[in-house]
Amino acid sequence: MANPSEDGGAPMQVAAHLMPVRSFDAACAQVIDYLAQVAPMGLWAVMRVNEGTQLVLSSTGDTYPVHAGDVFPFGTSLCRRMVSGDAPRIAPDVAQVAAYAEAAAAAPITIGAYVGTPITGPGGELFGTVCGFDPHPLSESLTEHQPLLDLLSSLLAAVLAGDLRATSAARELEHARREADVDALTGLLNRRGWDRYLHAEEERFRRFGDPACVVVIDLDRLKVVNDTQGHEAGDNYIRRAARALESGVRQGDVVARLGGDEFGVIAVGATPEQAREIVERADEAMRTSGIAGSFGFAPYTVVSGFPGAFEAADRAMYEQKRRRRACVRA
């Protein structure tokens, strides 16, 4: 057999369109597109399970009004019963499976048939599910696809593990690069570093459906401090605010000075309720340090991305500032 490199040159390169998929989102799209061909159902989807919810990462089918970015409760779902082992992964007629029949009856959509399999993370933990729904009961031949489900869920778990490793390595490299993106006054990320981080993380968060919140902070009274005490006092005011913000966030959260008296935080993995707690701690830490400021926060979504979350947080911050000024005038 001929050796691809027997001419002494570099190994033969594989054509680009034959290269295997390495990103999790692309693998998910391929899997559900394939399932829609070999086992047609009203909806095939990949869901990310987190904090008691299911986030649709990818979907195909026009029978149900379900799209990427939609969020549904997990605890009352058919997927929850499948993952727990209380019901089979393939139910051609959900009415014949007690656990599924109860959940289907309470669902906001009509479900006659269901297929589901878990996607596990690197440590064996539940990451999400691949699931199919149809409004009508289907043939028992649907159960013949269980070996295919086993294969596809294993492949997705492998791609997920590889993508997570690659993402972790990329984040470490990004962390090393931050030294060039540090604000000289506070030691935090500067605006360039913030923008670079958002650009790098946007695709990663969209791919995995991870939760996050954006917090925007605008300091009060900086101009007064500068005008009455001098710019050195103003710089010290900003530095104290930076230290207070760092003490209020969690390890792994990203804090940046966006310019002048404005700061930003990416609360990685945080739900809106956790972001509210971060804001409360940071506000208390700033007040203790003699710093006043206005806060706004908003959750990241795969629909609006970080730009949309930042704009929503900025609007919320200015609304809080407006209310506070109105109270002072009153």
From TrEMBL:
Coiled coil: none
The GGDEF domain, residue ranges: 210-330
Organism domain of life: Bacteria
InterPro entries, per database record: Diguanylate_Cyclase, GAF, GAF-like_dom_sf, GGDEF_dom, Nucleotide_cyclase, Rev_trsase/Diguanyl_cyclase
Protein name per its UniProtKB record: Sensor domain-containing diguanylate cyclase
Organism encoding this protein: Pseudonocardia charpentierae
